Amino acid sequence: MRGEPRQADHVKTALIARAEPGTWARVFVYRASKTAQQIARMARLGELGAYSPAGDFEAYASLVPDGSAVWVRYVGDGPVPPPLPQRMTVRVPDYGTGPDYRGVRIVEVEVLPLCPACGGPRGFDRITPDRFQRDDAWHTRDRWDNPCGHKDMYEDVLAEARSLALKVSRSPSADDVDGGSHAAAVRFLVEGAAAKRFFHAKQAAQALHEAGHTEAAGIIREQLQARRGAMSAKQAAHHLHTVGGGGPR
Q1: In the chain, which stretches have pLDDT less than 70?
Q2: Where along the chain do its domains lie?
Q3: Which residue pairs, CB below 8 angstroms and at least 24 apart, start in 19-25?
């Protein structure tokens, strides 16, 4: 990417993120996705000095055309900001894929809440209805602006939605997870971690509490304290699974 620095400046990125709590900031685009995932994990756990202590930052890695981008946001002070949604649901016009024009229909689709160009959050909280006229009829589609400035084209959104639906149909469901006496809470964490709605156990416990899983949230907070903050959302799910007496995963 033109203008991309040759290496990540974690100190600078952390300062930018701390100056705007709850706002996502891009760290760097790594060529290897495994490297990006490792950096995101280290940021969440505070293993990189700029992002310490553990739990002060959320972080994720997202595939982009030229590699895998890492994004972080500061959540150490004040209330926990809303997590990223699991999906972004929008209404888009579908003109068909054939060579002949057959009219337009409005379809509701689900896509990831991340910009495919840079990996940053999409404008899932900026969706507004937009009425337009076509073939002597009025239709309503959705419009949104992405904070990163990249624009989503409707045809690209449709293609992404079809691809995502295919991947989901081939993936095991979180309903298959046996979490024992805390099965519902474990499924909640598994789904949330997979959808990148939360990353650290601190945010996972808060989300559990808000969802009504107060006992499970208390268990996670106790374990989080015992580990001195070094606990991811996935580790929290595993701990609940173990405490609840769930079967092999």
Answers
A1: 1-4, 98, 166-181, 196-198, 244-249
A2: 10-74, 88-169, 174-243
A3: 20/74, 21/73, 21/74, 21/75, 21/76, 21/77, 21/78, 21/81, 22/73, 22/74, 22/75, 22/78, 22/81, 23/73, 24/71, 24/72, 24/73, 24/120, 24/121, 24/147, 25/71, 25/72, 25/73
